[in-house]
Design goal:
By secondary structure, this protein is mainly beta. The protein is built from one helix and 25 strands. The protein has one domain: Neuraminidase (6 Propeller), CATH 2.120.10. The protein has a six-stranded antiparallel β-sheet, with no helix packed on it. Strands 1-23-22-21-20 form a five-stranded antiparallel β-sheet. Strands 6-7-8-9 form a four-stranded antiparallel β-sheet, with no helix packed on it. It is globular, with a radius of gyration of 18 Å. The two termini are 31 Å apart. The structure holds magnesium ion (MG). Magnesium ion (MG) binds next to strand 16.
């Protein structure tokens, strides 16, 4: 029997969750929780508390919570690269950075064609080690989540591909209003990108688009609308090994099938900004919900590992 924490809208969802399972509230105390990334080697989760300018570590072994970085350059989205290093989107730093194995911070990308990036928002690492990220203006729109500043790129909020070996930074998409969360399909033939442009444009997008990755693995092809958000907006999201999309929304986590059908919801009593799969079997979803960190076990596994 499913608890009231789940809402089944399509019977396929009933197979992706468990009976007698509840959402757990693990910790509270953030102003805007974002950017969860799970480190399987250390069994901990790193996530952002953007307005409080800190990153937080949840230790899965004893459920303790501690400060990881403070100040933290108003970091937003995170990912873990193929070498197990933390990749961070920095609002205040207006860059994508990496924590090296020796603990030092290295800026990987801060400018495009001589102009400062806006405020990198969310990031994913492809299996070839390249780093793909979005660069909307949220971190420079005000002093709340970074330092207010005028965009040097004009109104352009691009999606970028960074080769961390050569440092080459290329625009892979420039037709989003405010690109936000992003994630590849399990075979990396598709890239899903959220657009939260409704925040800046009347009746603007609050949807996810799906974009074909060209055969070169470096550029993007045609795109189409994947799903509109029915409550709030889609911010960050992850895919499971079967290609289902588990995405943040205004009323919790929405699970979408590959055809875009809303299969069901994990209900969270706060706006959710982002999530990631964790746990030793990567079947535990960690959920950043505004003031709190939540988690829930599901009958699905994260597609990318670590992430
Ligand atoms: Mg985001």
């Amino acid at each position: 029997m499913l608890t009231a924490d789940f809402e089944v809208l399509d019977q396929r969802f009933a197979k992706l969750v468990f009976g007698n399972v509840y959402v757990e509230k693990l910790w509270t105390g953030s102003r805007w929780a974002e950017g969860p990334a799970y480190f399987p080697a250390g069994k901990y989760l790193i996530f952002s508390d953007i307005p409080n300018n800190r990153t937080i570590r949840f230790d899965e072994t004893d459920s303790s919570v501690s400060i990881f970085q403070s100040p933290a350059n108003n970091q937003n989205g995170h990912s873990v690269d193929r070498e197990g290093r933390l990749i961070a989107c920095e609002h205040q730093g207006r860059c994508v950075s990496r924590i090296e194995h020796d603990g030092t911070r290295k800026v990987l990308a801060s400018h495009y064609e001589g102009k400062r990036l806006n405020s990198p928002n969310d990031v994913v690492v492809k299996s070839d080690g390249t780093i793909w990220f979005t660069d909307p203006t949220y971190g420079i729109d005000s002093d709340y989540e970074g330092d207010a500043a005028k965009s040097e790129l004009g109104d352009q909020s691009n999606v970028y591909r960074l080769d961390p070996m050569s440092g080459e930074l290329t625009v892979v998409a420039s037709d989003f209003v405010r690109p936000n969360g992003l994630a590849f399909s399990p075979d990396e033939s598709l890239l899903y990108i959220a657009d939260t442009g409704f925040s800046h444009v009347t009746n603007g997008p609050k949807h996810i688009r799906v974009v074909k990755v060209n055969a070169d693995g470096k550029t993007l092809g045609e795109s189409r609308l994947f799903a509109d958000c029915s409550f709030g907006c889609f911010d960050g999201f992850r895919l499971d090994t079967n290609g289902n999309i588990w995405t943040s929304a205004g009323d919790g986590v929405h699970c979408l099938a590959q055809d875009g059908t809303l299969l069901g919801k994990i209900k969270i009593p706060e706006v959710v900004a982002n999530l990631t799969f964790g746990g030793p079997k990567r079947n535990r979803i960690y959920i950043c919900g505004t003031t709190s960190l939540y988690s829930v076990y599901v009958n699905a596994r994260g597609a990318v590992w670590p992430a």
